[in-house]
Amino acid sequence: MPVRHQMLRAPHQPPDLPPRTAAVYVFSLSAGTQSPAGPGRVLKVGMVNANSGPRFKYQHYKEGSTGSTLAGAVRNNRVLWTYLGVRKPVGGYGEWLKRHTDRDHFFVDARYSEVVPLLEVYLKGQLGPVFEGSMKKHPYSSRQSA
């Protein structure tokens, strides 16, 4: 069961998920990043099955397309902006992701898709992504300080 790797350097355009393929994807800050987090800091590790082309290609670049997207997580967690080198982006947070992150893909033939969740867990443990679990806005993040 071969795993095929692909890396897209920033700036990148999101690719299509190849037919009959499952994948694990990794978003990380690009080599040109000027921030305390530094180049290579992993923001998100996720996985998709062979029927999740939209999730793979574009949903993480849209701030509100699903319950948890990387663009929405960046937007909603202002406390991390200085650490990550984010300034309120012109064109939205999805455009910021395309310009400032690299994407790694680990493709697996859909016949062996049972390995994909294991690969995702392994990569999360090794890479320690900034955004994991629920990436929605924290219920107290909009509170005014007294």
Structure description:
With about 150 residues, this protein is an alpha+beta fold. The chain has one domain (about 5-125). About 25% of the residues lie in helices and about 20% in strands. A four-stranded antiparallel beta sheet has the order 1-4-2-3. Residues about 135-145 have low confidence and may be disordered.
Shape: globular
Helix content: 10-25%
Number of domains: 1
Distance between the termini: 57 Å
Question: Main beta sheet: strand number and arrangement?
Answer: 4 strands, antiparallel
Residue fraction in strands: 15-25%
Global Rg: 15 Å
Which stretches are low in confidence, meaning pLDDT under 50 for 5 or more residues running? 134-146
Number of helices: 5
Strand order of the largest sheet: 1-4-2-3
**Average residue-wise pLDDT:** 87
Q: Secondary-structure element order, as H and E?
A: EEEHHHHEH
SS class:
alpha+beta
| E-strand count | 4
Query: Oligomeric status of the shown chains?
Result: single chain
Short description:
The protein is of the alpha+beta class and 146 residues long.
What descriptors fit this protein?
146 residues; four-stranded antiparallel β-sheet; single chain; 25% helix; disordered C terminus; alpha+beta; 4 strands
Describe the protein's topology.
Layout: E1 3-8, E2 21-29, E3 42-48, H1 53-57, H2 70-76, H3 81-84, H4 93-100, E4 101-109, H5 116-127
Helix pairs in contact: 2-4
